[in-house]
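Subject: complex prediction, re-run

Hi both,

The earlier run crashed halfway through, so I resubmitted it with identical inputs.
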Amino acid sequence: MEYYADIAIQIMFLMMLALSLNLLVGYTGETSMAQAAFYGIGAYTVGLLTMPVAVAGLEIATSSGVAGGAGWPFWPAVLISILVSAAVASAISIPALSRVRGEFLILMTLAFQLVTTQLMGSLTSITGGTFGLTPIPPMTFFGQSLIKPSQVVIVVGIATVLTFVFCYRLGESPFGRVLKGIREQETAVRAVGKGTVLPKVIVFGVAAGVAGLAGALNASYYQVAAPQSFNLDVSILAIAVVILGGVANPVGTVVAAILLGLLNPVLDALVGAEASAWRGVIYGLALVLVMRYRPQGLVPEHQGPLRFLRRRRRRNAPAVAAAATTRAPRDGAPDATPGAPGAVPSGPAPEVVLKVEGMSKSFGGIKAVSDATFDLTRGQITALVGPNGAGKTTLFNLITNAITPDQGAVTLNGTSITGLSISEIARRGMARSFQDGRLFERLSAIDNVAMAIPDQRAENPFILTVRPLYVKKRERAVRQSALECLQLVGMHADAETLVADLSYGDQKLVAIARLIATGADVLLLDEPTSGVDPSAVEHVIDVISDLRAAGKTICLVEHSVHMVERLADRAVFLDQGRVLAMGSMKELMARQDLKEIYFGA
Amino acid sequence: MHLISAAGASPSLVLQLVVSGVVLGSFYALLGMSVSVIYSTTKVFHFAHAFVYTAAAYVALGTASVLGLPIVLAIVIGLIAAVVLGVTIELVVYRSMRRSGASSLGIFLASLGISIAGPNLIQIIFGPDGRNLPVGNPTLYTVGTVTFTTWDIVTVVVSWVLIGGVLAMRRSRWGLASIAVSANRELSAAVGISPQKIYVYAFAVGSLLIGSAAILFTLNQAATPNMGLQPVLFGFIATFLAGVGNQKTAPLAGFVLGMVVSLSGIWLSQTFQTAVIFGLLFVALIVRPQGIFRKAAV
Amino acid sequence: MTVSTFISRARRFTAAAAVAALAVGLASCASSDSGTAAACDGDTAINGIFGEGGEAGGQGVTVKVGMLLAMTGSGSSYGEVMSNGAKLAAEQILAACGPDFEIAIGDHESGSVPAAVAAARKLISQDGINVLQTSFGGVSEAIIPLVQQNKILTLQGGGTSPGQIGKDYLWNTRQLFADPSIPGGLAWVAQTYPEATKMAVVGTLENGINAQTKLIPEIWPEVAPGGTVVLNEQHEVGLTDFGQIIAKIQSAEPDVIWIFEQGGDNATFMKALRRAGVTAPVVSSETGGEEVCKLAPEEFDTVIALGENYDVANPNPFNEQFVTEYKDAYGKNPDIFAANYYEEMFVFWELVNRVVADGGDPTSGEQLQAALAADPTFQSVYGGSADEVGTMSIDEETHLPVKPMGAYTIKDCQLTQVATITEVDEGGDPFSGVSK
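This time it finished cleanly. Structure:
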């Protein structure tokens, strides 16, 4: 009985560690190799806080000569452990995450993990060195000291369930949606006006806080905190659990933690002495095989019992049910853009909304854009045209500061936006689409669009925790708005479909819906119809005309002369990064020289 | 606690540490070159390099002590094993994953899996205890107060000859092709360079270098199943400090790293050495994520 | 209390121990009747020393003994010899009509605290052990709360650390690593190398840290005129590149080097040191070590080991039959660890007998500990003479034993004793601890 309780406790510690790590690896797509370090920081913190205050005359309490602790009661110490782990993680992640991504982050977290373990081993007067900090008082629960595994298992069990619910809800919340967006397309999240550094710093802290809780419980259960319990092997084991179980799916993490956790006792019985080596071989190979043949893991992201329940509930939600009709023909389009705050009616006089002046950029001596000057008029569609390599997309990138220009100024509604970040520009009312879509592929269409809806206080994880009902209500409204945006492009029937499962043309429509959802007045569309099949092209053209009708100012990069002629009020002709001419498409195409440049001589 | 060394910076200590630093730095330079050859060309975060390192050492000492083959032959077999293992990992695991559209993170995780499974397998076969390559004791040379051994000279010479060889190869057809692939994979495929072949070439060269490093290490020290993690990590640190894709400066970064590690001994106890290295990496990556030696893209 | 006071306290108990041993011998002679079970005849060599067994000798009682050992990892050779010693003892005791000691082994993976705690929990809750034999320093400290909460009498014979001194339910049959031998050892070094003044100390951050950072710097200047510690370097376990530390040694030019290295670290350090041409004598607080012999046999031969050691050639009859039987069973000589875990099993037997004699429950850790504390002296393979079985006594307060210590030269991995070292009283003549 006690033995099985002990195994259950060990598995649950692994589970808590992996559930928290899944927030990073699974939802945010950032690999941390330092999860065990934060686990350890929690353990040492609780140890130092709860150990009795040193009494003179009892110096040799431990080998290391750790004099004693702060003599705190258990639960306040646990709270501090969580906070300390979270604070350390946030502190190191602020510079790391804003500057560093992918492999750099792996290397840095690896470094942090190794330094932490080494310091745990060498700062003997604080940590007890390699022997560890001991004896740490056992945990208490309602005044009762818990020593037996069969008692501890209840507390750890409650903590694990809470961790599961917390991680699951956070992952499926609007905040989780932002995280998944960062994982799928970080630039696209910024392009719809959301910062990505803060959510990453927060999730790093939250994940470390949960690991710290696990560490605090671990230390008071084992009554010792030693470096080996929190070393790189433990971090890697947690990664293996997340990957084997399936990223961004807490159910998978639970399953994998049980499977890998049970390996220990089973191998002990089977191979005895070599159990730990065999365990390494087995989960190492499992990691290789899973990544090779089933990268989505045992329980993939969009599967599992909980996911099924959630979807059913949503299907039954009245708002969605009402909207879930077949794709409407475009003729009966709604008269205004709903859900977006900036549905400004077209003013009487032509008004310059965006001014681009003297924009220049060279790449290694080649002038990609040179002294480009033009402006956009409210309620009009302006097309950037020109042959391949004329610098059209580069110009988009320069205007939105995705690439820093060498020279030039951009003014939006009379205010300079030169040098502002792409997300700030989006918040000020100018948003762009990407030639290659940059959709969040492993998210549903409606989640893609919902991501772009501005001012979502529900995306704040703090509000999420303290005001769950408000978040629920707000989220319902957001989804309603998103659904309406999808309806505008006629994609509402596919709202719950994963974008990866949509046709290319449909994906382009979702991208436009996402752009609409930002509520921006000025929309920069990069080849909205490229790769879209002819029947759908008409549909896209209708959508864009509707947007103009709703008062949006639109600038589009487009190849098809036909389409530009039909849509654009004005065209800017670019060649080799220079603005050669401006005027209606008809006028431009009447000029032989331009025609030659455009179609080739 | 004696965290700060009381030794002080006597001239003889500094000289000796400089000499140790040259040896250690040359070794790290070789590690940096090895990791950089693979990483800059293929962009694979090849963590399984640690297993290739360990395998080279164990194959060499296995053939020498179990089969009783002459030591030179055993070393050659160890190096061949490293190359074969490295290329096999590329062909069997990474290439097929790339084909099925795996992300670089996915490939890293598979690599991580290999780096866990491999050394544990070696532990099951050979046991966890350290093992020596059956080579004799080196000769000791004394110049003034400074001492060094044959193996120190061998380490420095072999490291730089190999690094020089790889850098010279950059002028060759293969070398130019791999520079092209690392600069732009799609474009080089378009001009008729097969990235697949270049990747295999990069893994072969990188594995030969890491295998050589493993053998150099085993001349002096006992091999253990977990011997691979630290050197590969240092190789990556050198690569990232040099600036990713900057093959020419990776050995330089490795050398500087070795020097810093060694000279830190003037003031610091060994127990803080690793913390110093990683602290430096930490600061360097934050302050100069493009690499400390990064000039224009190569 | 300080280290020196417990050393002196331990010493005072030595005298009392000899008297107590006599009493034990008499007690075991008295228990000579009772019918014997089929499996034993009460006529083995063991019966000659410990009496005939039978009911008063705990026959029919089953005691579950847990062993927490390094079965895997770098120290697995220790785990092997420790379990060999204990198994041999359990067989001999059963054959001598004593209790049935059932052994269950848990693996701490050569010092991994989490593995040790998990294994200890399994031993206690799954295997239902009544008593425990533990090993290694750190892991044994980590399980102290566990054995105390579960009232498991625990004997430690291979890795006593300061954190295991005077702990309820934990009794040591091996001296504290390094510390007790430091005063006498330093005095011996001062005598043997009269010109030596500059000492360098190198070691890992493990058992010997108190000796490294406190005892040697304090005592060396006292015993060696003009003595100074010119270098005191600690490093992490498993270090492969000693270049920096050796550069510091070369620059400090010590006359003698005292090391606290174990297993692979010992081999790596000694190889690197000698290869760098450092010829200064090396004194090591580690007296055992198969690993170092395998990896650096030549370099190890230049070391002087200083500390507690077990003498295979001790003619004490208990030891003689032990060595013979051990060789028969395992094909090689027992070492200190085989000996300690062997004789610990006989300690358990003696305690079972005492509890049975008092009409108590011989599987109760509480009662076994009370029996131990009442008279902590036991027959031993250490000490004694050709005619007389040796004794070991454990200090009631510190829970530390007094065992013979010496200085040993090494040839082909065999230790030869060159001096005897005894513990030195605080303030006493340091040289009184040395005899040749």
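The first strand of chain C starts at residue 62 and ends at 69.

- K.
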